[in-house]
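debug: dumping io for the single-chain case to check the tokenizer round-trip. Nothing else runs in this session.
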Amino acid sequence: MPAAASVPERRPEEPGFLRFASSWPPAWLLVFVSLAAAAVRVVLSLDRPLSYDCYLHAFIATQDRWHNVMMVADLHPISYYALLRLASFLGEEPLILRSIGICAGAVSAFLLGWSARKVAADSATAPLAATAYAFSSAAIDLSLDLRGYMLCLFFILLSFVFLLRTLELAERADDRAPPLFAVFAGAACATEHYGVLYAGAALGVLAIAAGSEPAFRGSLAAWARRCRPGLAAVLAVPPIVAYALYRPRALSLSVFGSQLGDLWPREGGSLVGFFLANLQKELNLFLPFPIASRALFLGLLALAAAAAVLAARRGPAGMAGLRRGAAPMILLVLLLELAGLSLARIYPFGGPMRHQSVIEPFLILSAFLTLDGLAAQLGSETRRQALFLVAALAVSEASYANAARLAAPAPPRGAHEYRVFERRFGRPRTVYVDRLSHVYLYAQTRDWRWTATRDFSRKDADLEFRLRKRGESDRFVIRSRKYSFDLAQAAAWKSIAHAIRRARRDSATLFLITSDRDTYLADARKRERLYRRRARSEGLEIEKSHIAGRGFFATVSLKER
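debug: decoded output
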């Protein structure tokens, strides 16, 4: 009997959600977006001076003794300062110092697109999401900042890639994914404080997946039996890093209550009103066109929620659905964490952009996955393409608006005052500064080599530096432990006299800049007379003084008693 002809097995028709998933964007398209992001950041870096905080962190990282770095690097975790120190060996030009943030920002755009590519149904979603993130003003600002925020986001997105691979354990075994997820989450915690918020949210997603999906729970248990060191890494690395870095300053942000008063809940106020008001501030940080009207914001929020529900209605079930919902779940948990910490007056919700930037990648991923889900339900190829064309135009317009916001760089602060100081006082051998003015002086004398004359003994002690430059006489800078001075008070002159005596100097030239321009300009002559009286009362004689802009400069000498 002749063998029956084999009939190819007929695969079931794919649901509408996966109908357009057959042609993924090639990786080179995401690479192109990443390279374009790097190019934009390099061009902007060439035209944008470093900010006050950037100079402060450059000074911290470039100390000639590691002990001194450790003594003053209390503003952020130490890991970013270590990388910034390595970069400074190549040079201290702004572009070199910013190279860490520029590279992290460009690669982060690729990682965000790669994450979207893993869970999206349509080939256009990943490059659009990557482009929106690459050219957002928030991401560009963080890339050009000399702080660890962009590096932390890079580690967060890298950890998220391995979180998605961990959620695939039921489909394919990948023993490296869970420990790599934990290691990069720990690296995020070691770079900036909000990495802890992401780690908690991501572990929550894993807990939800393990609790709701027996297949995943079984594969996770099998992996744990095979890879006990990996299990230890998942459970231990993020908490240990978070505890070690943040135990000494767990509630440090609470001291800024006076600056963040409008972000804390009001006594007797509505919690719902507090949450909605701060949520509006939070989202406006990352929108190219901020929404001022509360009614318009609530309407758009309701529309976005309805679109998300509609997009998820016909989405995949099981682990595929959990992978697709990982970014929205992390976004929701982050918002709840921020709101809870703000209620406890520990961490601001809706505060400065850099403190809230952890939500931006997950906000963009959630928005484009909603768009992706809606497109998959349109059915008609023409309608789907029209929807993505509108999205592409919106991303293009948003990028243009962001470029306009970033186009005009602010002039470097303190430059005018330093020019006046040099013109009036030359290059005095000993200069006395407070902590605020020290950064302005450092910004204008970076062509000199700064070295500490001794190891820093305490964070609150006066410091002394030697400045050297080929062909010039050495100069010395005494930095007060005080952040700024009220020169109308005798205590300020007492501190100045004590520092000059302790440094074994007969005189010093004050270079003091205030953050309030009116402090020195109001009744300048009257103030100078008052300063002379206060100085004499502490055994100091003002030989020469001058007020310019926000600066007060004076040569003072010790009087013989």
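debug: round-trip ok. Residues 24-406 form one domain.
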